[in-house]
Structures are given as C-alpha cells and as structure tokens.
Amino acid sequence: MSKLVLIRHGQSEWNLENKFTGWIDVDLSEKGVEEAKNAGKLIKEHGLKFDQAYTSVLTRAIKTLHYALAESDQLWVPETKSWRLNERHYGGLQGLNKKATADKYGDEQVHIWRRSYDVLPPKIEDDSKYSQVHDRRYADLDPHIIPRTENLKVCLERVMPFWEDHIAPDLLAGKNVIIAAHGNSLRALTKYIENISDADIMNLEMKTGEPVVYTFDEKLNVTNKEKLDD
C-alpha cells in the first residue's frame, strides 16, 4: 500500500496581509516557516518515509517542502517542481486586499469568487504588474496556456494531467509521495481523490502546514485518511 501526503504551504506574507495571492510569488512569513518545520516534525514522529516529492514553482510551496523534508531527515528525496501544482490563478483579484475587495464588490460576490466551483474572477490584464505572462519560469509554456483567471474547476483541469502522468504512476508503483502545494491546487486533488461533489468542495478547507495522509490500495482506492496534528 502506498501513501500520499499533502501539505498546504505554511502561512505566506500575503496570507498575513490578507491579500489575494494566486500566482504571485511571495515568501513564507515567520509563522509559515514554523508551520512548515512542524509539519516535518510530525512526519518524522509518524515514521513516514518518501520516495518522491512534488511541489509548485512558487517559493512558499518550495520552501515548505524543503523545511518539511529537512525536519524529517529526508531532504535527499527526489523532487520535481511543476507549474501545474501552482495555486489557482486569481486573475484581476491578485494583489488586492480581500477586505477592501469585499467592501467594493460586496461580501457575497467575493465569497462566490473565492469558493464557487465554476465562477471565474475577472481576468487579469497582460500589462498588469501582477501578470505572469513575462515571468521567466513560464517561458517554455505556450503563452495561451498561462491563465489570466481560474476557478477551482479550471484549476482541477490543469492539475489532473500531472496526477495522471506523475503522481498516480508513482503510487501504483508502490512509492510514497509527498506534495507541498497550495490551498486550491490541493483542494482540486482532494476533490478528485475523494470524489467530492461540486457543491461540497466549496466547504473544504486546507489548513496551512497540516499534513494530510492518504493510504491507497493497489487500485488507488483510499483505504485511510489521517490529518497529522500536535
């Protein structure tokens, strides 16, 4: 039986400032670093051993993975980064304060943008300072692939090829896998793994720095789910 551990990155500087982050590359806050280290300590305490690690191309997730692996004495584990594991792209909301946005558009509209499965936020303009069209880490992508906005449905469609090509084959081969990524890319994976409905996924929260452990049988059916905490 193989195991998959999902960790949402520790608190970021923009989580702390209550801003929509999306694909903006911000660092972990001091609290976020401690959350990531604590995740690694919990992983070590529970005796979890990994064969492969995955993360996004965003600093807050990469550092979370490294802190967690270092604390569990597994920094050597092979690691792959992919833009497909990035946070959901928040479009024109990126960089905006969440409270100020709610004051402008109303709490209900912002809640729909944040939690609806298939409603898209406004698109970001390519000339915005918060756009990723000129970011070097995406230079090898077809420019049409780089999102201008995403909802959870689109995020799931973006994540699934990576699951199918990399994560699922590893699990089927009996490997234990750790993924450090983001609230929405991990919600998308969770929706697929647990077959959660479009309506129910709106209520799923991923805590920062909390390892979620899945155990699978040889046909990738979930046989156990456990959240690690102190």
Automatic annotation (TrEMBL):
Pinpoint the site Transition state stabilizer: 182
Tell me one GO biological process term: glycolytic process
**What keywords sit in the KW lines?**
Gluconeogenesis, Glycolysis, Isomerase
Q: Which residues form the active site?
A: 9 (tele-phosphohistidine intermediate), 87 (proton donor/acceptor)
Substrates-to-products reaction catalysed: (2R)-2-phosphoglycerate = (2R)-3-phosphoglycerate
Task: Tell me which residues bind substrate.
Answer: 8-15, 21-22, 60, 87-90, 98, 114-115, 183-184
- EC number assigned by the record: 5.4.2.11
Which domain of life, per UniProt?
A: Bacteria
Span-the-membrane segments of this chain are none
Q: Pathway involvement? A: Carbohydrate degradation; glycolysis; pyruvate from D-glyceraldehyde 3-phosphate: step 3/5
Record-linked SMART domains: PGAM
Q: Which GO terms describe its molecular function?
A: phosphoglycerate mutase activity
Tagged with keyword Nucleus: no
* Family as reported in the entry's similarity comment: Belongs to the phosphoglycerate mutase family. BPG-dependent PGAM subfamily.
Q: Return the HAMAP family for the record.
A: PGAM_GpmA
* Protein function: Catalyzes the interconversion of 2-phosphoglycerate and 3-phosphoglycerate.
Q: What is this protein called?
A: 2,3-bisphosphoglycerate-dependent phosphoglycerate mutase
- Tell me which species this is from: Lactobacillus helsingborgensis
